[in-house]
Amino acid sequence: MFFTLSKILWFIVDPGNLFIIVLTAGALLLWTSKARLGRGLVSLALLGALSVTVFPVGKTMMGMLENRFKRLETMPENISGIIVLGGVFNQFIAEKRGSAAPNFAPGRFAEFVRLAKLYPDARLVFTGGSGSLSRRMSRRPISRARCSKAGASILRG
After folding, report:
1. Whole-prediction pTM
2. Main-chain dihedrals φ then ψ at residue 134, nearest 5 degrees
3. Would you list the DSSP string of 16-30?
């Protein structure tokens, strides 16, 4: 239940989708007795689109997030585990092709593999899951195959 609700909620509040929803609602209201509200929604959507397009909002937010954590100058001798965030592979394309289809963050996976080789005793955690409401697909086979091709075994205890 939570899985389905989270996917539906994210579809609505995803910034790109939210922009289209507000713009569409505003445009539809322009043809009703609520035209003033419609103009307000269309204006809000336009203002939002212009702000994100003209100002480096995404880069600024990403920089703030990345700067919250200092980069290590020297790596520790031992670590107990390595966690990589999902979103590295496009599961829908990968399922059709039968092989990995890199998404927006291939560097994240490359760093995961590098650290897995550097710390062979570390426990490896690959987070993420399916974005599909109709069926839940596992990214495990894709991740294993990709790690094996890169020379790192993720079959650890």
Report:
1. 0.59
2. -80, -35
3. HHHHHHHHHHHHHHT
**DSSP code string of the chain:** -HHHHHHHHHHHHSHHHHHHHHHHHHHHHTTSTTHHHHHHHHHHHHHHHHHHHHS-HHHHHHHHHHTTSPPPSS--S--SEEEE-S-SB-HHHHHHHTS--B-S-HHHHHHHHHHHHH-TTSEEEE------SS----SHHHHHHHHHHTT------
Please indicate, yes or no, if residue 112 is contained in any of the structural domains.
yes
For 71-85, 92-106, 136-150, which range has the lowest pLDDT when averaged over its residues? 136-150
Per the structure, the complete domain to which residue 103 belongs is given by 81-149
Of 108, 104, 112, nearest to 144 (Cα)? 112
